[in-house]
User: Fold these one by one.
Assistant:
Number 1:
Amino acid sequence: MTEKKQAEQYSLFFIQRFKGKVLFNVPMSDYTSFRIGGPADVVAFPKDDGDLKDIISFAESKGFPYYILGAGTNVLVRDGGVRGIVIVMIEGFKHAEWEETASGARAVAGAGASLAEITGECRERGLTGMEFAVSIPGTVGGAVLMNAGAYGGEMKDVVEGVEVMNGKGQKGFLPKGDIGFSYRSSNIPKGNIVMRAHLAFKKGNKEEIKNKMAELREKRKTTGKIPYPNAGSVFKNPEGLVAGRLIEEAGLKGETSGSAQISNVHGNYIVNLGGAAAKDVLHLMALIRDRIYRTKGITLEPEIKVIGEG
Ligand SMILES: Cc1cc2nc3c(=O)[nH]c(=O)nc-3n(C[C@H](O)[C@H](O)[C@H](O)COP(=O)(O)OP(=O)(O)OC[C@H]3O[C@@H](n4cnc5c(N)ncnc54)[C@H](O)[C@@H]3O)c2cc1C
């Protein structure tokens, strides 16, 4: 299909059906915490379940690829950008519904709700279970997909199940046992989009929860102060080891490629010093993997998701 024809097809659909905001040819650097990434053909913000179903059906029927994004805090978009549609969940799926239970409370949280909001609500309501997430940026959807975690806690500890939509626009519910949670990963069937997560928390002591969150926030002081855009830890920790320490021991802190740098503060963070290209970050990632493999015989596995065209 010619580019013009494709643009016409997009426009027609978005004018006629779609209720949410739609942007064409926008740099993904606007939608990632790395502030890196070439243009996406289309960035769409579905307003509700109907919008999501419509856009998936449209994409599937035309053979347009699509990619789901939360807050973009764990993603590196390549410099050539993304062909197809980036579906961003942060506008229409923000709502969280809270309900008291015998042991505490349950929240049915929209995929686009921020973890910070859920954590804050738990603190105010005196609910325990979410303290670990106090400094993790991003959305509920992204956190479920990544099984985000810190300080011994992870999303799998609080998730009861997720409401999903598959590539045919059909809704379903995946109970926790079917999500396939593992370290910084889940096994949600390909093509399934998390619309809402059912989260369960126990009643706790408000003061203790507040103090725990303050304590964990304090522990983040070093990385929290990194003044440059980044996407958190680039590599997963190998079993029993700390990736950042391996990188530091290999003498790689401070290495640069273009305007990307292996952080001087934390070896497992790569930072964008200003105007870095994805290829610079990828170059540093390759350098790290190669050096750690050669010196320690360990293959580091990326934690961040790399998407788009080179
Ligand atoms: C400063 C900083 C500190 C961080 N600290 C931590 C930490 O301590 N622990 C930790 O685990 N992570 C950490 N991260 C990484 C990141 O914040 C988490 O992985 C977060 O959960 C990602 O959420 P997001 O909404 O930004 O997801 P995105 O980056 O937008 O997406 C991540 C992945 O999830 C998929 N996805 C997003 N939403 C959905 C959905 N609704 N349905 C299906 N798939 C979806 C995307 O396709 C992508 O593959 C940190 C990041 C930064 C920048």
Note: The CA atoms of residues 245 and 267 lie 7 Å apart.
Number 2:
Amino acid sequence: MTSRYGGYEEREFVAGYYDTAYDARRQDVDFFVEYSRQAGGRTLELGCGTGRVLIPTAIAGYEVTGLDLSHYMLQQCREKLSRQPEDVRQRIRLIEENMTDFDTAEQYSLVTTPFRSFQHLITLEEQKACLNCTNHHLVPGGLLILDLFHPYPPRLVPDPRYMDEIEDLPETALPDGRRLRRTSRTVAFHREQQYNDIEIIYYIIHPDGRQERLVQAFPFRYFFRYEVEHLLELYGFRIVDLFGNYDRSPLSNDSPEMIFVAEKTGRGQEP
Ligand SMILES: C[S@@+](CC[C@H](N)C(=O)[O-])C[C@H]1O[C@@H](n2cnc3c(N)ncnc32)[C@H](O)[C@@H]1O
């Protein structure tokens, strides 16, 4: 069964294996930490998860609030934080809320959405509500970084290459001696609503050879460039940069990512 918001708040196992799956593979942490440095004020990360980006930001010396809907993801984050020195812990505030409707009672110079958390908002109403809330939490001239994937057309139609399970993580040791392997596949296409139903499949291999199969199933929205440009403008933002990857290369035909850096220019609209 597909879950809203990635299933992170419904399926505990997802949080438990998240860092094993992504820690070493994502190349985005320095990009976000550098923006926190440049912004020079407090950062808000929407969908902070296990703190994969949040904790390095605080270790680098910057104050950061992490907001996430998933109790399990935040639990992992708290557990990792408990192993950090007091000064790092002091720089982090965690909030369990929906990014479509939040009030942290703080203002930020930077709001980020690392690793596509905004793509868990399937409907236009949710996206607008999130941008409006974000606008209200930014200081004038503050920045929003919207981190999305750059849609690759063969993945948006029923192409058998992506409907069968594709290896996503080769067999990898877990700290307790078990092993994890992951595959992913697209199970349904909703082109008229611009989202796909995705499954990430976790194979847990126990020391006695027993194997478990667990499924994280969720809808995932894709965005096209000019749609995002219009949406940002409507909600009081001006795009100052558009990157195709975390090395800050410009968006091009083959770019894997679509990273908007937008400055707050006005109040936007009420949803
Ligand atoms: C792919 S993870 C990214 C986590 C983290 N930003 C990172 O880069 O590792 C997406 C996160 O967004 C969170 N999320 C999804 N929908 C959300 C919503 N509506 N409000 C708050 N968090 C949400 C999930 O719980 C999950 O932790």
Note: The first helix runs from residue 12 to 22.
